[in-house]
Amino acid sequence: MLLSVVVCTYNREDYLKRCLENIVNSTLDKTLYEVLVIDNNSVDKTKEIVESFQKLAGNISYFQEHQQGLSFARNRAIREAKGKYLLYLDDDALVNAEGLEELNTFLSENAGVAVVGGRSYIEYESAKPDWLTKKSEDWIGAYDFGEEILVVNKNYRKKLVRYPIGACFCVEKEFLSSIGGFDSKLGRIGKKMLAGEETLVNFWAEKKQRLIIYFPNIFVRHLIQPERLSVKAFFVMTFYNGVSDYLIRTKVHSFLRRFGFSLFRVAFLFKNILEYCFYSLVRNKDRAFDSRFLMNFNFGYVVALFGFCKNG
User: pTM higher than 0.70 for the full model?
Assistant: First the structure.
């Protein structure tokens, strides 16, 4: 079997139902893939919902992961999955009907790929805030670089494409296992906002000279809940993304490279502060918010750099 689709979930029964509906309506023959639902200690009707889908499709399996945390749930799939590749879909992400078939064909024709990222479109469950710019949508999971398949390794430095994100993230199981899986010190645990566990996987793939692909033929509509759309929520999220970025770089970069990169982050923090003040004075709200979010990100990095923020 080439493909295992993995959905990790925690108390999100309504979202899980919609997610599974889209997966089982895929055009890919159900004998060619499996679906693993990893329940990370839900107390709602998650298990009952999965059981109802198991009656409709014979390729769905249910597992409970008792160690709390997204990385623990994702790593459980490494042990349980039969496929060569693991496609991780967020439980609030709705995959396109042809996506699994397109991905399965691509993987069967392109040996040696380590990571594949699909597109992610933002779909708001409530009105989009006036202050939320197109650029700032990247913070909540927008990931769209056009219709062309791209090798991320060659284009990342040119800023033509970013590393694949977790909403629709496919990785070779053997490679993922070889790097120890997803780092359990990263990723969300309950309300703790650390992130970037899939970013670290991307870093390791590039470090080991393995192919990372942007594959737009599979995409998800990523549902954004109203509680994620407050200014305060964005400030907290961007700060902890900066903390996570520092933690990631301690794992893959040498001391000298981290030192140089940290100087860069400190310089950009001051640049962001000046930009935020300037755009606030000239009443350019869009640019002011973008600058403030980047300022929070770099501030989070600097706080982690000087050891004021601990994981947990």
Answer: yes
